[in-house]
Design brief:
Largest sheet: 5 strands, mixed
Number of strands: 7
Oligomer: single chain
CATH topology of the largest domain: Glutaredoxin
CATH architecture of the largest domain: 3-Layer(aba) Sandwich
CATH superfamily of the largest domain: Glutaredoxin
Strand content: 15-25%
Order of helices and strands: HEEEHHEHEEEH
Distance between the termini: 85 Å
CATH class of the largest domain: Alpha Beta
Radius of gyration: 29 Å
Shape: globular
């Protein structure tokens, strides 16, 4: 009889003790195991949610740089503000601006600033090649700032389907929150620096 009682008691204990031994539920039954879906870093980077209108999030683009790499505007969105310089290789003021690109890039490197040059036309008024961008970078000593091969396909005076360009060069100032803050048409080193300071303050 004692053996039978011990046996029954042992079985009862085992059934109670192991009720917590079942596998831990996954998914919705266990919040800790529920997979989290990370949001896109810039959900506004779609054509419907962006424009090149002041105060809006500019539309993303991807172009080849002077080293033949694909570079996107939004590659730099989480590092700091962006200067977007739309230039033509044949343009005198654009060349003057280019001579100071690396100096500006170095001066504001600690602020995460990216000075991005997009060449719209080469010396022949045609869409630039990667070789043109490399020539431009080498000529003006641009070593740590992207020089990109663009084209007139990027231009739209309304700002809805491209960048408004009415003079060479044209600069766009984009905040670290990827908001188009202001623009500058033509070249002035002192005014460029003033606009950078204002953009950093946003």
């Amino acid at each position: 009889m004692k053996f039978l009682k011990w046996f029954i008691s042992g079985m009862l204990f085992a059934s109670i003790g192991c009720s917590a031994c079942n596998p831990t539920p996954k998914g919705d039954d266990n919040p800790e195991e529920t997979a989290t879906v990370e949001a896109e870093p810039y959900p506004w980077a779609t054509w419907e949610d962006c424009s090149q209108v002041e105060g809006d999030h500019p539309c993303n683009f991807t172009l080849q740089d002077q080293n033949g790499n694909d570079v996107s505007l939004y590659d730099f969105g989480d590092s700091g503000p962006i200067i977007l310089d739309l230039s033509a290789m044949w343009c005198g003021p654009c060349n003057s601006a280019a001579s100071e690109v690396q100096e500006v890039q170095d001066k504001y490197a600690s602020e995460g600033l990216t000075y991005m040059t997009v060449l719209i036309e080469n010396y022949n008024g045609e869409a630039p090649s990667v070789a043109d961008c490399k020539m431009w970078a080498d000529r003006w000593g641009i070593t740590s700032a992207p020089v990109l091969a663009g084209s007139r396909d990027m231009i739209d005076h309304s700002g809805q389907e491209g960048w408004s360009l009415s003079s060479w060069p044209t600069f766009y100032f984009i905040t670290s929150d990827m908001v188009y803050y202001a623009n500058m048409r033509g070249w002035s080193a002192s005014y460029l620096d003033q606009m950078i300071q204002q953009t950093l303050a946003q």
